[in-house]
């Protein structure tokens, strides 16, 4: 029966973020508005293999089409391509900084939650140690009392044995009167 109860409790999912929930009200530096969330998502997209592969494919296609003469919208020094890269970097850098700032704010809130949790654990541990020390002191006192009671019981038992022996000797030494 204890196996069933331990199995049923082990099936309950553990909420590992329960100590971070009190800090959920701490908003990120730039808020949770639509722009901030999309800017952060876009900045996160810059570092993905899909973005890098797509950008490489576009550049190869751009250069190939212009070099082979299929189209002539950007001649050899590829000034328009350089302008596109400059525009992309002009927006990418601030968006990446925005994402880093928001992540730093989240990390700080989680670090504070972790620190508070560790402090609560330390306090609870100190309280448990104090309770254990108190229980140990009570147990030692009870053991001491038990030892005294055992010695008293032994002394009384010896006294009873002695008195019983004396009574037996008196009854044996005295003749019975009819």
From TrEMBL:
Keywords: Membrane, Transmembrane, Transmembrane helix. It comes from the Bacteria. The keyword Nucleotide-binding does not apply. Signal peptide: none annotated. Coiled coil: none annotated. The chain crosses the membrane at residues 41-63, 75-98. InterPro entries: DUF1003 (IPR010406). This is DUF1003 domain-containing protein. The keyword Transmembrane applies.
